[in-house]
Amino acid sequence: MIDLRTEFAGLHLKNPLIVSSSGLTGSVEKNERLELAGAGAIVLKSLFEEQIMLKAEQTNEQAYIPEGGNFLTEHIHEKDLSDYLKLIQESKKNCSIPIIASINCCTDTEWIEFVRKIEQAGADALELNILSIQASPYYECGEFEKNHISILKNVKSKIRIPVIVKLGTHLTNPVSLINKLRAQGAEGIVLFNRLYQTDIDIKKLEYISGEVLSSPSDLTASLRWIGISSATVSNIDYAASGGVHSAEAAIKSILVGASAVELCSVIYKTGSQCIRPMLKTIENWMTEKGFENISQFKGLMRAKDVNCANMYERTQFLRYFSERE
Question: Gene3D superfamilies given for it (predicted)?
């Protein structure tokens, strides 16, 4: 009997396929359908710090008196939070799989008080989606990483549920940051977040959005860094995100050390009915290889010698291109 159960960030999952934070998980009805489709866990659509702050600023500009602006700003905060708390409560009520709340943030501000209410609403865990680009000429090296640690430290001081940090790709040394996040109490790491894709309309001379959905080739970054990080910082759980479009991609992610994977683009492209065939393919592969459970092959192909990881990557790069004509 094949056992697909896994543990990620202290959560017991019936299988390693998590639906990531997106419009796919923005309503109770959608979350119920995702569970029926076979999902192992759900990360709710993010509560966006910047969106709340922007709406508050716009309201203040429209207010005639400071007192009125302050009142409306507080109302917006409470309304957005109330809606989100209701999504958590209703999803927990109607779904039996773990429900992970998500906050998309870039600063350490008053919004952090929201996390206590998120825990009280019943979320099984909280994913911190820390996303921003550092482009100031006065930026001091390491400030971005310190911001991650500061946010996590403050969140951990307010809640007891597991905290998962979803990282972007713009990091000099993910391993070092992951080690520091683990020291501050992070239970899980997701690699990697997908940035807004910038493009240009050359006819209108306007900035436009590039391809929103990921492609299978995006998986390579997660495979590289989970493989290296899980070998170096082993006492924390990892999940792969970005480019997981097939059962094969999920298997590869587990082989390099991931406990789970986050699905998004593949569901947008093919629908949630893709989940059960992916699970079946994983089961068939495990049967073929003689594995009875996830732990038997998890990390089997993580980096063997992390001190030589850079040389290995450079050697393989040179070998690949020297053989191409």
Answer: Aldolase class I
Give the E-state strand segments of 6-142 in sequence order. Answer: 6-8, 11-13, 17-19, 41-43, 47-48, 99-105, 125-130
List 174's β-bridge partners, or say none.
none
Give Cα separations from 268 to 46, 68, 148, 249 (angstroms): 17, 42, 30, 17
Q: Hey, how many other C-beta atoms are within 10 angstroms of the C-beta on 202?
A: 7
The count of other CB atoms within 10 Å of the CB of residue 60 is 15
- Establish how many alpha carbons lie within 13 A of residue 93's alpha carbon, considering only the half-sphere containing its beta carbon: 10
The pLDDT of residue 65? 45
Ranges of residues in the chain with a pLDDT under 70 are 49-77, 106-111, 132-135, 139, 308, 311-325
Torsion of CA 282, 284, 288, 293, to 10 degrees: 50
Strands 47-48 and 188-191 come out as unpaired
Q: Would you state the structure tokens that stand for residue 4, as one six-digit string?
A: 């697909």
pLDDT given at position 77: 62
The whole-number pLDDT of residue 71 equals 43
Beta-carbon count within 10 A of 51 CB: 13
Q: What is the pLDDT of residue 319?
A: 67
Q: Are strands 41-43 and 17-19 parallel, antiparallel or unpaired?
A: parallel
Domains in the chain (CATH in brackets) are 6-322 (3.20.20.70)
Q: Which among 253, 259, 256 is positioned nearest to 98, based on CA atoms?
A: 259
pLDDT at 228: 94
Q: What's the rounded Cα separation, in Å, for the pair 47 and 81? A: 8
CA dist 246 and 241 (Å) reads 12
Is residue 236 helix, strand or coil?
Answer: coil
Q: Is the pTM of this model over 0.85?
A: yes
Token pair 């952090």 is found at 112
